[in-house]
From TrEMBL:
Molecular function terms, GO-annotated: metallocarboxypeptidase activity; zinc ion binding
Domain Peptidase M14 stretches: 299-570
Subcellular location: Cytoplasm, Cytosol
Highest taxon of the lineage: Eukaryota
Gene name tied to this protein: AGBL3
Catalytic activity line of the entry: (L-glutamyl)(n+1)-gamma-L-glutamyl-L-glutamyl-[protein] + H2O = (L-glutamyl)(n)-gamma-L-glutamyl-L-glutamyl-[protein] + L-glutamate
Protein name (record): AGBL carboxypeptidase 3
Residues passing through the membrane, by range: none
Length: 705
């Protein structure tokens, strides 16, 4: 049963002491768990008004019995009374019994990126029958497509062609999210690795995650992955592989850390099919003998990690009151896709007044950084801070934390078990092939019939760019106001975390190849603020974090900054909103002017008059004094606890510029009304002398970060 079959109900289903009467004393004999959800079934009554059925439950609310339909049995994906739902694999996948677990840890200092020395080598490995194959996973190619799933997959032992008594490293990747296809020992301490393409495809080789044992400390080992397909990589820009040691975790409580020397990403010889492949090579010395270690492309976050996290929420008597965990649908392998509804339960008011915010993640299973951002968001929104309470009181959050659990389980980078990219199939009608995106789109459609959705954000990882940024949609075909409004939230986000989020890296367009993405489909459905948030696999080029890798805590902090920016965006005091809107107008004007100057020999005075009468010009009589003034204002922002406190915090700034703000805001409101009513802009052009004087001023920096 899916989420779209569920009738939304945020009424308070608890019974207070003051509502309890003497004639209801028998309720004291009912168990607490049963008491909270239902007290009687309809067939318990002899009244012929009620049909004899167990599918109608009677709840005691505010002094009377209220009938409702029983929830479908599989609607609850996490239960406090039983174990987690077992993980299902394609039947032919071999899975080891060992459960891989890692501790959470944050380095005391940011980990620097790798600086090339110019002496890095580029190993090339011609095929040789004399080389020793030390690991080979043949199970991936037993079927051309997905057939059926099984709990635990196929546990047939995989023979190791080497003896544990020698010094050969032992490799393993037959665990959740693991990915390694083949390992060849090419020298005493040198290994050639091949990662497995996404199941039922022959491409998407980016994600790797594997175990290494039987090592010797102090020896320089070289690892080379030889079948990457992307010409550009963050490994060429200083990114280091991730390493985890079980002995380090146990003895020193040290988790995942960035390691490696002589790191090089380069094009190697073409493969047998004529395609060019790329290699990643690095050297490393293990800290301990006979340790159990792991290498990974990014911080792993598995389906089991998610289930354990959701189980913790479900078992928490506080958080479970305002976070309802349901099953959106089941995947091809019959794994559960969870959906969370987060809001403060209402007792007697209409919940339709609350606007909705939608977040999704892990449509691409190898982009694990998106799960860490999602975890940070959930940690904050389910916390006990005043801002979190305010957000829950104001909005209804619909959250799908893992859209592609099948791909996550088997260690895919991009695709589901259908062998397709789910984020290109939001327009598909094939519910059976792409259930998670089909049901997500349907859930959003039903939600929009009940309430306004002010923001949709799909979390992703990016393999070629640094920092964190957003992709939005271009509203220029509708109106200039909408065109700028869609940029306000990303701009606010860049000001709240200037050392991580880059507004200058954001793009706002709709390419034909992206029309099947969640971002574009939700935008076309009517959600004005529809974004994809991209988080680098590497680190930052901004502020104090410049030249360092992002840790899991850095990624989690983006969840908090998202919430903080949402409060700014929806603050009843619109000062920050309109200031950002004015700044965007200035930026757009300067970009337009630069393009005109580059492409035209027209005199300046003619260009300025044309710009002022165009649809992209500014309606305000004066521009913002400078970016410095705005940045000074935002740098003094304090975390607002309530609406009253947030209004009082910005009141001083508003009073200081009261005359100017009233004038500017009047123009902006007028423009907003004209845009929404599709009234053509009939304002007169500014005087030419003013524009000539404007061009004599120094243009501020276009970038915000």
């Amino acid at each position: 049963m899916s989420e779209d079959s569920e009738k939304e109900d945020y009424s308070d289903r608890t019974i207070s002491d003051e509502d309890e009467s003497d004639e209801d004393m028998f309720m004291k004999f009912v168990s607490e768990d049963f008491h909270r959800c239902a007290l009687l079934t309809a067939d318990s009554f002899g009244d012929p008004f009620f049909p004899r059925t167990t599918q109608i439950l009677l709840e005691y609310q505010l002094g009377r019995w209220v009938p409702r339909l029983r929830e479908p049995r599989d609607l609850y994906g996490v239960s406090s009374s039983g174990p987690l739902s077992p993980t299902r694999w394609p039947y032919h996948c071999e899975v080891i019994d060992e459960k891989v677990q890692h501790i959470d840890w944050t380095p005391s200092c940011p980990e620097p990126m790798y600086i090339p020395t110019g002496l890095e080598t580029e190993p090339l490995y011609p095929d040789s029958k004399e080389d020793t194959v030390v690991y080979l996973a043949e199970d991936a190619y037993k079927e051309p497509c997905f057939v059926y799933s099984r709990v635990g997959g196929n546990r047939t032992p995989l023979k190791q062609p080497v003896d544990y008594r020698d010094n050969t490293l032992m490799f393993e990747a037959r665990f959740e999210s693991g990915n390694l296809q083949k390992v060849v020992k090419v020298a005493e301490y040198e290994y050639q690795l091949t990662v497995r393409p996404d199941l039922f495809t022959n491409k998407h080789t980016q994600w790797y995650y594997f175990q290494v044992t039987n090592m010797r400390a102090g020896i320089v080992y070289r690892f080379t992955i030889v079948n990457f397909t992307k010409p550009a990589s963050l490994y060429s820009r200083g990114m280091r592989p991730l390493f985890y040691s079980e002995k380090e975790a146990k003895a020193h409580h040290i988790g995942w850390q960035r390691i490696g020397d002589q790191i090089k990403y380069y094009r190697n010889n073409p493969g047998q099919d004529g395609r060019h492949y790329f290699s990643l090579t690095w050297t490393f010395q293990f800290p301990h003998n006979k340790d159990t270690c792991y290498f990974a492309h990014c911080y792993p976050y598995t389906y089991t990690n998610l289930q354990e996290y959701l189980s913790g929420i479900n078992n928490d008597p506080v958080r479970s009151k305002f976070c309802k965990i349901r099953v959106l649908c089941h995947t091809l392998a019959r794994n559960m896709v969870y959906i969370l509804t987060i809001t403060t339960p209402l007792k007697n008011s209409d919940s339709r007044k609350r606007k909705a915010v939608i977040l999704t993640a892990r449509v691409h299973p190898g982009e694990t950084n998106s799960s860490w951002i999602m975890k940070g968001f959930l940690d904050y929104i389910l916390g006990n801070s005043s801002d979190a309470q305010l957000l829950r009181d104001t909005f209804v959050f619909k959250v799908v934390p893992m859209l592609n659990p099948d791909g996550v389980i088997v260690g895919n980078y991009r695709c589901s078990l259908a062998g397709r990219d789910l984020n290109r199939n939001y327009t598909s009608l094939l519910k059976e092939s792409f259930p998670s995106v089909w049901y997500t789109r349907n859930m959003v459609h039903r939600l929009m019939e009940k309430r306004e959705v002010i923001l949709y954000c799909d979390l992703h990882g990016h393999s070629r760019k640094e920092n964190i940024f957003m992709y939005g949609c271009d509203g220029s075909d509708r109106s200039k106001t909408l065109y700028l409004q869609q940029r306000i939230f990303p701009l606010m986000l860049s000001k709240n975390c200037p050392d991580k989020f880059s507004f200058s890296a954001c793009k706002f367009n709709v390419q034909k190849s992206k029309e099947g993405t969640g971002r574009v489909v939700m935008w076309k459905m009517g959600i004005r603020n529809s974004f994809t948030m991209e988080a680098t696999f590497c680190g930052s080029t901004l502020g104090n974090k410049r030249g360092t890798h992002f840790s899991t805590k850095d990624l989690e902090s983006m969840g908090y900054h998202f919430c903080d920016s949402l409060l700014d965006y929806c603050d009843p005091d619109r000062t920050k909103y309109y200031r950002c809107l004015k700044e965007l107008e200035e930026m757009e004007r300067h970009i337009t002017l630069e393009k005109v100057f580059e492409d035209s020999d027209t005199p300046v005075i003619h260009i300025t008059l044309d710009l002022e009468s165009s649809s992209r010009g500014s309606d305000s009589s004066e521009s913002i004094d400078s970016l410095t003034d705005l940045l000074k204002l935002t740098s003094q922002k304090k975390h607002l606890k309530t609406k009253k406190e947030r209004n009082s915090t910005t009141a001083s700034h508003q009073n200081a510029r009261e005359g100017q703000e009233v004038y500017d805001r009047g123009h902006l409101l007028q423009r907003h009304k004209q845009s929404n009513s599709d009234v053509k802009d009939t304002r007169p052009n500014e005087p030419g002398d003013y524009m000539v004087d404007y061009f004599r001023r120094q243009l501020p920096n276009q970038g915000l970060v």
